[in-house]
Amino acid sequence: MNPQTHLAIRRPLALLLAVLIPAVQLSAQGVTEIAPTPPPANSLLRPYLAPEAPPIRTTNSPRLAGLLRGGNLYLTAHDAVVLALENNIDLEIARYSPILADWRVTRALAGGALPGVPSGAGQAASFASGQGVLGSQAAAGVSGGGGAGGGGTGRSNATVSQVGPVVQTLDPTIQQATTFSHRSNPQSNVTQSLTNNLISRQRAYSGSFQQGFLTGGSVTVSYSHYFLEENSPTNLLNPSVALNLSIIVQHNLLQGFGTAVNGRNIKVAKLNRNISDIDFETQVSSTVVSVLRSYYKLVADEEDVRAKQDAANTAEEYLRETRQRVADGIAAELDITTAQSQLAAARRDLIISRTTFSQDETQLKNLISRNGVQDPALRDARIITLDKLAVPDKESLPQIHELTSKALAGRTDLQSQTARLETSEVAAIGTKNGLLPTAQVFAITRQSGLAGVQRQVPRGDGFQTADPYFAGGVGTALGQVFRRNYPTEGAGVFFRNVFGNNQAQADSAIDQLQLRQSQLTSAKSRKQVEVDVRNAVIAIEQARARYEAARENRILAAELLDAEQKRLRLGASTPFNVIQQQRDLTIARSGEITAMVAYRNAHLALERSLGTVLQSNGITISEAMSGKVAPAGPRP
Predict the structure, then answer these.
(1) pLDDT digits (tens, 9 = 90+) for 161-181
(2) 68, 123, 286, 537: least surrounded by Cβ within 10 Å?
(3) What is the DSSP letter of 469?
(4) How far apart are the C-alpha atoms of 199 and 210, rounded to whole Å?
C-alpha cells in the first residue's frame, strides 16, 4: 500500500483514538465528574456539537459531615490530609489541567490552521470561463460593463497553500457552497449580447475535499457546477451547465518537509500532557505539606492555650493565697496588687493564645473544605486534634548520598524541568527547519464539461447552432468530465529564498540560547538537590537539639517554680520570685511547643526535598486525581 494512502487511512483512526483514549484515561483516573462529556447525539452529528463541561463541584465530601459530632470536628492528621484531597479548592482547580492537556493533544492531532477559502457570498458573482456572454467576455479579456467577471475555476476552487514549517491540516476537510443569483448588467456594447440589459439567472455549486499529511503535503479534490440562463439571443447553448473536476497535489520539499517538523506540535502536546500530571503531583504535595503544617500548628496552639490556661489558673491560685497571707498578717497589701497584675498578664496571654488558635483553626477549615467557614456547620464547629506533637527518642536517617539519590529520582520539580527541556528541543525543530528555503512541488489535473439547450443564432445569411455533442444537461456534461474529453494537466515547482535569512537565523539562535539557559537552570537545580538535602538534615538535627534543650528548660523551670512556692510558704521567698518563676515556666512550655513544631516542619521539609511527601502519607495520585479516597478502617 502506498505510504501516503496508508497514512490517510490511519488519520481518522488516530483522531478517533485521540478522543477515546483520553476519555478512557480520565475514566480510569476518576475525573469523569469534571471532564467534558460528549453531546447526546449520533456519531455523525456529535463532532459538530460542543462538549458539555459539568458545573463546578461546590459541596464537600460526605467524609467531612461524618467527622462532625456534637458540634466538634474530630481530626487526625491523616483525616485532615484526606479531607484536603477531597475538598481543597486549589486541588480542584489543578484537576482540570490534565483534562485541558488531553484536549490540547486532540487539537494538535488536527494539524495547523485551515486553508483560506472564498466565502459563500463570493459564488454569487462567479461563472465559468466561456459560459454565456459574461463568461465569453472574461475569456476574451473584455468586460461588458456593470458586471463583475471572474472564472469559476479560479475562484471557487482557490486554495491558500501553507508554506514553511506550518503544519498541514490533518483533519479531512469538506467544503461546499451553493448560491442562486439573478443579475442585470447594462451593456455599453451590444455587439455580442444584442441586448441593452443582459439578464442572467445563475446557480453555482462548488465543493472540495482536502487532506493534509504529516510528511508536509496535501491533496485537494474540487468540484464546481455552474448553471446559467441569459436573455441574450446570441447564445448557442441557453440555458447551459459547465462542470469542472480537479485534483491538486502539493508537497513541501525543504521547509516544512518531514514528519519530525510537522509532528512537533503533537509531540509537544503529548509531553505537556505528561507535564500536567507531574505538576498536579507537585500541587498535591504542596497542599499536603500546607495541611500538615496547619494541622500541627493547631496542635501547638492547643498546647499553648493549655499552658496559658495553666498559667492563668496558677495566677488565680496565687492571688487567693496572697489575700489569705495578707489577712493572716504575714504579707503586705502591695503583694495583692502584684498578684493581680500577674493574673491580668496571664489572662491577656490566654486571650492572645485563644485568638491565635481561632485564626489557625479557620485556616485549616479553609484548606480541608470547598466553602470554608461559609458552611454554618463547619463555621461553628471546633476542631479537636487527635494527633499530638511528639519527638522520637532517636533519629535514624540514611546517609546523605542515599537521600540525594532518592531526591534526584523522586522530585517532581526536576521531572518537570526535564520534560520541559524535551519540549523545547522538539519545538526547536521548527525554527531550525525554518532556515531552509521554501520549495514545493505540485501537480494538477482538471476535467471540464459543457452542455445545454441548443439554440439557433442568426449568422450572416443563415443560422448557426451548437455542436450536437454539447446538447443535453448535467448528465451530458458529467459524461464529458469522466471521459476526460477536455483535460487540463500541469505540474511545477515553487521556490522562494530570502537572502541573508536574518529573521530565521535570529529565531533559531534565540531558541538555542534559550534552550541552553534552560539546560543550565536544570543542571543548577540538580546541583542544588544535595544542598537542599543536607540543609534539611541539618535542620532536623538543629530542631532536635533545640527541642531537647527546650524540654530540659521546661523541666527545670517547673522544678524551680515548685521549689520557690514551697519557700514562699515557709517565708523564705517573696511573691515577686514566685511570679518570676511562673513566667519562666510559661515561656519554657511555649518554647518546648515551638521546638516540637519546628522539628515536625523540618521533617516535612526533608520529605519535600526528597519528593516523598505522598509516599510518607500513604497517598496515591489516582486518589488525589479523583478526589475520592477509600475509607480507612474503624478508629481505635
Answers:
(1) 333 367 888 888 899 999 998
(2) 68
(3) G
(4) 36
For residues 305 and 404, membership in a common domain is answered with yes
Other beta carbons within 10 Å of 440 = 22
Question: Helical H runs in 374-411?
Answer: 376-379, 400-410
> What are residue 251's DSSP bridge partners?
217, 441
- Tally of structural domains, the chain: 3
Helix axes 575-610, 400-410, angle to 10 degrees: 60
Q: Is residue 84 part of a domain?
A: no
Place of cell 487511512: 9
264 within some domain: no
What CA–CA distance (Å, rounded) separates 427 from 429?
A: 5
How far apart are the two ends of the chain, measured CA to CA in Å?
68
pLDDT digits (tens, 9 = 90+) for 501-552: 898 899 889 989 999 999 999 999 999 999 999 999 999 999 999 999 999 9
Domain contains 518:
yes
Closest CA to 103 of 262, 270, 217: 270
Query: Nearest Cα to 109, choosing from 219, 262, 216?
Result: 262
Listed in sequence order, the DSSP H helices in 234-263 are 259-262
Q: Enter the C-alpha cell of residue 183.
A: 443579475
- Residue carrying C-alpha cell 540514611: 398
Three cell numbers at 331?
504579707
Query: Is residue 431 in some structural domain?
Result: no
Q: Please report the DSSP string for 177-225 in residue order.
A: EEEEEEEEEE-S--TTT-SSEEEEEEEEEEEEEEEE-TTSEEEEEEEEE
Alpha carbon distance 468, 455 (integer Å): 11
Let me know: does 147 contact 185? Beta carbons within 8 Å: yes
Domain that holds residue 216: 120-158+166-254+438-496
Region for 201 from its dihedrals, namely left if φ exceeds 0, alpha if ψ lies in -120 to 50, beta otherwise: beta
Q: Is 628 helix (H, G, I), strand (E, B) or coil?
A: coil
The pTM of this model reads 0.77
Which residue in 238, 367, 304 sits closest to 589, CA to CA?
Answer: 304
In 3D, which of 215, 255, 264, 256 has the Cα closest to residue 422?
Answer: 264
Q: Same domain, yes or no, for 416 and 300?
A: yes
Contact (CB, 8 A) for 547 and 592: yes
Residues 411 and 518 reside in one and the same domain:
yes
CATH classification at residue 576: 1.20.1600.10
Q: Which of 194, 188, 191, 225 is nearest to 208 (CA)?
A: 225
Residue 546 sits in the same domain as residue 417 = yes
> Residue 482: which H helix or E strand, with range?
helix 474-482
